[in-house]
Amino acid sequence: MRLQNHLILFTTLSHGAYATCFWSGINWDNAQDSARGAVEYWCRDASDSARLTGVFHSGDSKGRCSNLLLEGQTIGKRLDITVQWLGQDESVLEVDQCIQRLNDEIGCDLGGSKVTDEWSFTSDPNTGLCAKVS
C-alpha cells in the first residue's frame, strides 16, 4: 500500500500539482458531508462578496469558516478553508474548480492542502467553533 501511495504522489507531483494530506491534527469525526456542504455553500451559494470564487489578483487569498455538523448538531469542530492565487496578473476561480479542489482535501483524514495550476487550496478541520463576526 505504501508503494502505491508513493506512486500516486509521484504521478501527482510530476504533473504540476502538489498535494499534501496533513499528518497530524484534528480528524473529521465523520463530518465530511457537512464539510462538503460548507464548500458547496462558500463556492456557489454565498453572497457575491462572501463567495470564494471570482477574480483574484496575484497573491490574493480568501478564507472562510464553517461549523461542522453531525446529524444536524454542532460537534465542537469547524472547517477552515482557504484559496489563494499564486500566479502573476489575475485569474478567475470558477465554481466547479473551487468545489472539486477543496473537496479533494476533505478526502484526507486530517484535511490537506494542494497547489495546482498556481492555485492553493486548503481544507482543514479544527477544534472549536467559528468566531462570530459582528
UniProtKB/TrEMBL annotation:
Protein name stated in the entry: Secreted protein
Alphabetized UniProt keyword annotations: Signal
Position of the signal peptide: 1-19
Keyword Signal applies: yes
